[in-house]
Structure formats: structure tokens, C-alpha cells
Amino acid sequence: MTRAMPELRAAIAALVVILASALAGGAGADPSPAPAVARSASGGDVVPHGPSLDERLDAIQRRVQAALVYPPIARLRRTQGTALLAFEIGADGRARGVAVAHSSGFAALDRAALRAVHAVDQLPYVYGRLEIPVHFELAARAPEVAISN
Fold first, then answer.
1. Which alpha helices (DSSP H) does the chain contain, by range?
2. Is the pTM above the cut of 0.85?
3. Which of 80, 84, 90, 93 has a 20 to 30 A CA-CA distance from 47?
4. pLDDT tens track for 98-145
């Protein structure tokens, strides 16, 4: 037991330094780390078993894309783009604090992306704030071919 004491003291001292740095605003650290697209802004999470972080982030993005309803006016105008949404996932599996982190450039697409995130329930849990791209792409029209008899 006494052999482990210096190691325990060192671990506690390291935690105190980390906590003090976090409370002081992480002197010298960037206060707003740039999260990657479709990645956890926290850089990781603590779920020990089950799907990996990347698998859960991919599942979240697929579910949001599947819930997406292309706005009719945007379809008519052939408007396309990508909206980047930021949010957290609550304990109930629903998106919380959803906001547009980067606009698609079209308000109708941004609103549809927000609706899609709110429409999905039971998202896989990921610790921290996420940024997920929501893509609006129209399929290319097939060339019209005249049929002669």
C-alpha cells in the first residue's frame, strides 16, 4: 500500500494542475478549439464498449440525412449546399442546443437541416458538442431523349 502512495500523490497533483488550468481558462490555450466536420468537438468520449466514436458520429450523420426533407422551393430553384449544424446529444438521445455553425448560403436549406436534426430521436450518445454537415444535393437530371416511332 505504501509503494502506491507516491504514484497516487503524483496522479492527484496532475489532476489538480489540469483542473486549475481549466478553471483559469487554460492560460495560453485556444478558448474555442476548432472541431472537425462530423466529429466531436471534445476530441473523444468515454463510452468504453460498443461502437467506436467514428461509428457513432457516422450513424448520427446518416440518421440526420435520412430525416432530411428537401424544401420544395429549393428543389424548384435547384438550390444545393451544405449546412454545418452544431449540437449536443442529451441523455434521452435527442439533439440539444442545435444551431447553424456554418450556413449553406440558403435560409430554406438551413431551416430544413435544423428540422431534420430535431426530427431524429434516439441518436447514439457522444460526449460534447458535435458539428455535423447536412448535405443538400439534387440528382442530376437524365438527358431527355426523343422517342420516335
1. 4-23, 53-67, 72-76, 107-119
2. no
3. 84
4. 999 999 999 999 999 999 999 998 999 999 999 999 999 998 765 555
User: Cβ distance 109 to 73 under 8 Å?
Assistant: no
Residues in Cβ contact with 18 at an 8 Å cutoff, skipping those fewer than 6 apart: none
Cα-based distances in Å from 14 to 26, 58, 115: 14, 34, 44
Residue 117 CB-density burial (10 A; 0-12 exposed, 13-18 middle, 19+ buried): buried
Domains of the chain, by residue range, sit at 1-30, 32-136
Cell numbers representing residue 63 in the block: 440518421
Q: Which residues contact residue 45 at a Cβ distance below 8 angstroms, ignoring those fewer than 6 apart?
A: 53, 125, 126, 127, 128
Residue 47 belongs to what H/E stretch?
A: none
Cell numbers at 80, concatenated: 444545393
Which CATH number describes the domain made up of 32-136? 3.30.2420.10
CB distance 37 to 133 below 8 Å = yes
Place of cell 449536443: 88
Cell numbers 457513432 label which residue? 56
